[in-house]
Write a structure and sequence with these properties.
17% strand; two-stranded antiparallel sheet; 4 helices; alpha+beta
């Protein structure tokens, strides 16, 4: 079995009742990068982006944003 890092951006957008379009304006991240993260299209993750998203959503526990999950 292998593992992969999952970004829970859509779950957080629902939890904090914020749209992806609004989040794009806040953390100073290129819109296409946030879209890729939200739609699991990104194969690499810039740690600075995770920090900016966490700061914007006032997340103190990074496990709300990312997790390591087993794959097939």
């Amino acid at each position: 079995m292998s593992k992969e890092i999952r970004i829970h951006l859509n779950d957080l957008l629902d939890k904090y009742d914020i749209s992806l379009n609004k989040l794009v304006r806040e953390p100073n991240i290129e819109p296409v990068r946030l879209w890729e993260l939200a739609n699991y299209k990104r194969k690499t993750i810039n740690i600075v982006y995770l920090v900016r998203i966490a700061e914007t959503l006032e997340i103190n526990d990074i496990r709300e944003l990312i997790s390591l999950e087993e794959t097939g």
